[in-house]
Amino acid sequence: MANRLRAAFYRGGTSKAVVFNGADLPKDQAVRDRIFLHVLGSPDPYGRQLNGLGGGLSSLSKVVIVEPSDRDDADVNYTFVQIAVDEPLADYGSACGNMASCVGPFAVEEGMVPVAVDQTEALIRIFSTNTQSVYHARFPVRDGMPVEEGEFAIPGVSGTGAKVTIDFLAPGGASTGHLLPTGNALDVLEIDGFGPLEVSLIDAANPVVFFRAADLNKTATERPQDLDNEAEFMTLVEKIRVAGSVAMGMVASPQDVRRSNPKVAMLGPAAAFTALDGSRYRQDSHDVNVRLVSMGNFHRAITLTGAMCTAVAAQIPGTLIQMIAQPEGQELRIGNPSGNLPTIADVRQGPSGPEAISAGTFRTQRRIMEGAVPYPPELTEDAK
Question: Could you write out the DSSP letters of every residue in 83-139?
Fold first, then answer.
């Protein structure tokens, strides 16, 4: 007879995940990971995860764990697990900003954070165990519970919902400890089979390797599916990502690079493009075009942490994104495959270089399903 584990299924921003209360999970991480893979339907050699709750894309193959925090600056701890679609891999090496938008509402639903019945807005302080950083999430509440209905729309999601404001506090150095891991706003990588390539290596919310689309004969207005189908191009992009990881000091050798981080993104000047839903975006609707790779595929929108890193990088003089977008203030509008994402970042000059004070944007979220997920008892047989 199958065991059962309480869970909820959420959309957070442009991602979806199975969300667990940490108190309900086995203590043994290896057992947890086997359960997560089973629930999502991985590994799937067909790439569809039909035998689980995953959706065959990195943005739809995620697990979130939420539990009360004992930190003075946080209400709850948030652990993100990226589940690989095609191999038995549960990766804890990155954060997910999109799913951060559901952590606060889930914590309220679970009674982890009390909300008074007369409150109209909740502020939940969230500690990311993946990046050792703190987010603040603000969202409307009614009668002590989160409100999902609203008039706010985000690119890549049909319909509207209640606005969730996400603020990343001190996002610099999330993985490497340094906003500029090499100390430079601009570096040159030697890419095997290609040659020298100018890049910006930035670590804010998540580390990202940025390069000019034009240097690879692209525009950053392409459809992600079309880019994914260019095998030779995708191999080259992966080489750039791996070289960037080594240059940032994240690993000692290319063989040790994680699939989840760093991300890699190509940049192009603002140009008209057609979003995945058929909407047409004019050149003046955004400041830069970005196409970002996550877990081996171009994202259908842009990861939220990738967007935060882009927003921060745009405020640092001499980076590729700063030179391309040339923002006049703290705001940056990012053209991505699903539309236009508005962001804001506060970067100031510190005694040893630029310092990222905060970065933020807006999301919506929805609790799609709640109940229990069954799993075979043998998955826990060697639990510690």
Answer: EPSSSS-EE-SS--HHHHHHHHHHHHHTTSS---TT-SEEEEEEEETTTTEEEEEEE
The predicted pLDDT at position 376 comes to 96
Cβ pair 200, 321 in contact under 8 A: yes
pTM for this structure? 0.86
Average pLDDT, consecutive stretches of 10 residues, N- to C-terminus, the chain (384 residues): 95 97 97 98 97 96 98 98 96 93 98 96 97 95 98 94 96 96 98 97 97 98 97 98 97 92 97 96 97 94 95 98 96 97 96 95 96 96 70
Start-end of CATH 3.10.310.10 domains in the chain: 3-166+366-380, 187-350
Architecture in CATH for domain 187-350: Roll (3.10)
Strands (E), 205-338: 206-212, 263-269, 273-274, 280-281, 288-294, 297-298, 331-336
Contact 64, 18 (CB under 8 A): yes
Query: Exposed, middle or buried, 153 (CB in 10 Å: 0-12/13-18/19+)?
Result: middle
Instruction: Name the amino acid, one letter, at 27.
Output: K
User: Collapsing DSSP states into helix, strand and coil, what is residue 34?
Assistant: helix
Does the domain at residues 3-166+366-380 carry the CATH identifier 3.40.50.1220?
no
Give residue 108's pLDDT: 98
Alpha-carbon distances of 289 from 70, 270, 324, rounded to whole Å: 41, 5, 10
